[in-house]
Amino acid sequence: MAPYPSVFKDETKLDISYVPYKLPHRDRELRLLMEFFGFLLRVPDKMTQRIIITGDVGTGKTVLSQRFGANVIREANRQGINLRYIHVNCREYRGSLFLIVHHVVSIFHPNFPRRGYSAEELLNILLQILDDQKTHIILTLDEFESLVERENSEAVYKLTRLQEIRLNKPQRISLICILRNLKVIEKLDASTRSTLQSNIIHLKRYLKQQLVDILNNRVLVAFKHLTVPEDTVSLTAELAFSENGNARFGIELLWRAGKYADAENSGMVTPECVRKAASSIYAVTRKSDLASLRIHEKMFLLGIARFFEQCEKAYASLTETEQAYAVVCEEFDVQPHSHTQLWKYLRTLSALGIVKTEVSGTGSRGRSTIISLPRVSAYELEKELSLLLQKEKP
Amino acid sequence: MNVEDVLSSRLRMKILKILMQVGELNVSKIARRLGANYTTTDKHLKVLEDEGMIKRKLFGRIRLYRLNESSPKTQAVQNLITVWEHANKQHTTNSW
Description:
The complex is a heterodimer. By secondary structure, chain A is an alpha/beta fold. Chain A has 3 domains: 27-203, 3-Layer(aba) Sandwich (Rossmann fold); 208-281, Helicase, Ruva Protein, domain 3 (Orthogonal Bundle), CATH 1.10.8.60; 287-392, Orthogonal Bundle (Arc Repressor Mutant, subunit A), CATH 1.10.10. Helices cover 52% and strands 11% of the residues of chain A. The longest helix of chain A is centred in the N-terminal third of the chain and has 18 residues, at 61-78. The mean pLDDT of chain A is 88. By secondary structure, chain B is an alpha+beta fold. Chain B has a single domain, classed as Orthogonal Bundle (Arc Repressor Mutant, subunit A). In chain B, strand 2 (54-59) and strand 3 (62-67) form a beta hairpin. Classes of the chains: A alpha/beta, B alpha+beta. The A-B interface holds A 109-113, 116-117, 121, 124-125, 128-129 and B 22-26, 28-29, 59-62, 64.
């Protein structure tokens, strides 16, 4: 059989460093940033801005800032204003103000020596360079927590106040501080806090449908046409949602699922690829959990696993899994348990985190339970359960 | 200074070559690349600066040197070095 070509069109679009042109569900925040920095395009010398962006992991803090950076620079270039956007991850520089400022200076002077002066002197040097080049910068301090933890108030104060004490000189450095939790700011003394905490943009966790939109946008640019079914996107979004609405997690999961699809030459990123990818990231369902299940719980779960293995769907109805369970019972030559009993088993399996249940919205035929296997590969689960059931066979 | 006085120094020629390669450096780093001490390096840098062949930029205590690209003398030496090194490469290839 001839191998399928890769499912990817351009997998770099799933890389953490990729900044999409459009940010679904972050347009309001993007506009807000442009408003906050609007003066830089009108009266660049007169004032600077300080913004704090907060939000949990994967809520789009970094990408929002980078998209804003690209947009504002494009606009500044159009208007002939010397403006640069510099994004620094403070953790990469061990939260050291000196190393962070040195990095910024070396963008202008690549061989700038590393020794022989203090962080404060280096900040003055940076201002001198910016004055010489008549340039303004928007400096984004990502993972700002590590700077606060290492340097405390003094360094942050220097960073914010140094240019303010330069009399009759143009303002040069605007700041965007990115952090997960505002509590970190409480560690700073009152005067430092007051220099920072003026404009705060808080990014809420993405909802499942928002994650679906984000993933669909990435699928369009990263995967070949018709290689990622709707169910796959939905399952990935579901998993990302259960990880605190972490879009980054979802995007990475999608990439990993694509890799599984390529490895298996399937030409299609199926929900099973996502489950395999997820189980390679999460701690796989513990074998002891499976072993402790009662025999009919195991058989019901085996039915669910076989259903997902065979049909390449992400979701199953209770009726569909009941039918699969009935086939397993026939195979083991036992009488199937009742619908009510299966409902209880489903609750146990759900409580153990092996399956996920959800009540579908009201349709023409009322509400029904939807079952998915979010975190474990159906194939692996089937293998493990078959082994356990063989041992228990009367 | 006369051309022979400026260019007869091996260290001064090396300084020009280093700045051609890396663009900009402080005195300590130039000295390290030359394998010379700070004072000697500083002396040669001063000669080249007086001739207008290199430029100095001060940042507090830090002095960064770069070639003065607009100086005809610097342009002439840059040309000389480029042609010379290209010819050397060709000579090595031909002798194979």
